[in-house]
Inverse folding.
C-alpha cells in the first residue's frame, strides 16, 4: 500500500492521462458499491457502531489535507467494516492545489473503497447551483495545460455520482450545508438530486446555514439556500431519526462552531487565505459513545 508521502508525490506529478484513469476507476467503484454498503438514492446509511472520521471543506488547501491525513495516520488505519472516513464536500476551488486535493481524495476512495465516503458540496453541485467564482478550470489549466477541459468534463461528471448525505440512524446525519426545511421523509434527502429543481431539498442541503434567534427560514446572503432556525433543525432531526447534524460549508475562525444547542456542528477543515481562519478542524466520532447531541463537541480535533 502507498504511504502518504508517495501519494503526495503522485498528486504533484500526475499527468492528465493518469488523472483520467483515476476518475474512471472511482466512477466504477461508485457505480457498484451499492452491493457492499446500504445506499438509498444518494443517502448512505452507515453502521451505528465503530468510528467515523469527518473532514469538512478543503478548498484546494493541500497542507491542511496532508496534516489531517498525517494526524489520523491514514495509511496505517485498520479500516474494518465499521470504520469510515467521510468527506463533506468542497474539495476544490479557492485554493491553488485543487487538482492535487481531488487526486488524493479520489485515490483514497480507490485505496479504501468500502470505507471512504465522498459527499457533494456546493462546489461540486449541479450547474445551476454551482458556487461562483468557480476557479477549478483555472487550476486544471495550470496543471494540465491544453488537456484541462477533458479532465474538467470528466471530473464534473463524476461529481454527479457523489452522495448527498450520510445517516447513522438514531445518532447523526452528515451533509454539506443545511437541512432541507420541507423534507417529510428521509427519501426527500435520498432523492433530492432527482427532485431538483422542482423542490428545494438539494439547494438547501448544499447551500443553507444555521442561524440563531430565528424561527423557520430566512433569506440567505449567499443568494442560494436559506438561513434556518433551531425549530427547522428539530423537525428535520425527527424526520431522519438523528440527534445531531454534522456539516461543513461555513468558514469559522476556530475551524468549527456549534449551533442550536449543540444539535448542529460545523466543521471547516482548511485554514488561512482566502477565508482567514486561524484554525482548521475535523471530527472523530466513536459511535459507541454517542448518547446525546452534546457528545459531538468533545470529538472535534483542531489544528
Amino acid at each position: 500500500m502507498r504511504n502518504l508521502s508517495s501519494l503526495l508525490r503522485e498528486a504533484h506529478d500526475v499527468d492528465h492521462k493518469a488523472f483520467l484513469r483515476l476518475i474512471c476507476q472511482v466512477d466504477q467503484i461508485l457505480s457498484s458499491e451499492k452491493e457492499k454498503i446500504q445506499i438509498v438514492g444518494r443517502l448512505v446509511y452507515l453502521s451505528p457502531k465503530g468510528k467515523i472520521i469527518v473532514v469538512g471543506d478543503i478548498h484546494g488547501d493541500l497542507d491542511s489535507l496532508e496534516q489531517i491525513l498525517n494526524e489520523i495516520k491514514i495509511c496505517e488505519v485498520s479500516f474494518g467494516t465499521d470504520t469510515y472516513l467521510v468527506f463533506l464536500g468542497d474539495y476544490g476551488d479557492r485554493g491553488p492545489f485543487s487538482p492535487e486535493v481531488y487526486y488524493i481524495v479520489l485515490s483514497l476512495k480507490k485505496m479504501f473503497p468500502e470505507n471512504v465516503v465522498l459527499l457533494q458540496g456546493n462546489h461540486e453541485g449541479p450547474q445551476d447551483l454551482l458556487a461562483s467564482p468557480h476557479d477549478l478550470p483555472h487550476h486544471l489549466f495550470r496543471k494540465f495545460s491544453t488537456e484541462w477541459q477533458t479532465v474538467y468534463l470528466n471530473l464534473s461528471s463524476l461529481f454527479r455520482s457523489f452522495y448527498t448525505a450520510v445517516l447513522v440512524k438514531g445518532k447523526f446525519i452528515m451533509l454539506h450545508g443545511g437541512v432541507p426545511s420541507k423534507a417529510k421523509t428521509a427519501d426527500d434527502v435520498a432523492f433530492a438530486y432527482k427532485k431538483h429543481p422542482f423542490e428545494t431539498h438539494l439547494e438547501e442541503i448544499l447551500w443553507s446555514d444555521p442561524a440563531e434567534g430565528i424561527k423557520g427560514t430566512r433569506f440567505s446572503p449567499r443568494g442560494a439556500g436559506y438561513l434556518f432556525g433551531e425549530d427547522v433543525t428539530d423537525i428535520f432531526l425527527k424526520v431522519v431519526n438523528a440527534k445531531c447534524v454534522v456539516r461543513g460549508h461555513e468558514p469559522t475562525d476556530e475551524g468549527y462552531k456549534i449551533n442550536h444547542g449543540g444539535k448542529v456542528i460545523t466543521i471547516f477543515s482548511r485554514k488561512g487565505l482566502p477565508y482567514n481562519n486561524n484554525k482548521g478542524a475535523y471530527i472523530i466520532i466513536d459511535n459507541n459513545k454517542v448518547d446525546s447531541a452534546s457528545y459531538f463537541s468533545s470529538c472535534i480535533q483542531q489544528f
